[in-house]
Amino acid sequence: MSERIGKYEIIRQVGEGSTSTVFLAHDPFAQRNVAIKRIHQSVLRDPERGKLYRHLLLNEASLAGKLIHPHIVQIYDAFVASDEGYVVMEYVGGGTLERHTDADTLLPRPRLLEIIFKCTRALDYAYRHGITHRDIKPANILLVAADGKDIKLSDFGSALFTASDTTQVSGVGSPAYMSPQQVREVPLNHQTDIYSLGVVMYQLLTGRLPFEASNNYSLLYRITNDEAAPPSQLNPDVPPSLDAIVMRAMQKDLDKRYQSWSDFSHDLAQAFRNHELEAQRGSIAEPQKFQSLRGMAFFREFSDVELWEVIRISEWSVAQPGTTLMQEGEPGNFFCFIAAGEVRVSKQGSLLNVLTAGDCFGEMALFSAGGGIRSARVETSTEVELMTVRASILNRASDACRMHFYKAFLEVLATRLSLANARIANV
Question: Is position 135 annotated as part of the catalytic site?
Answer without folding.
Answer: yes
